[in-house]
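Can't paste images in this forum, so I'm doing it all in text. The chain is below; anyone willing to post the predicted structure tokens underneath?
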Amino acid sequence: MKRVAVQQGLDEIRLGLEREGYEVVDYRDEGHIDAIVYTDIYSGLDSVNNSVDGNIYGAILINANNKTIDEIEHIIETRRYERLFTK
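Text version of the structure:
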């Protein structure tokens, strides 16, 4: 199960990701985080992944502005913002 940190105030996104089976945690949660969903970069992101057991692979940052749950989920799963090949 992928762990996703979601900025406070993004309740619809939090609930949508939980419904899709993701473990949704707070920024300050200890341990590995696969993705971080935010809209305001200045809301505590500076301390993410600064723990001794931090992410050795890093978390992908996802700006939720103008994105649907499906788009956010695609980014989490592929670790890419855009599809490589489009029709």
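The two ends are 31 Å apart (CA to CA). The chain has a mean pLDDT of 82.
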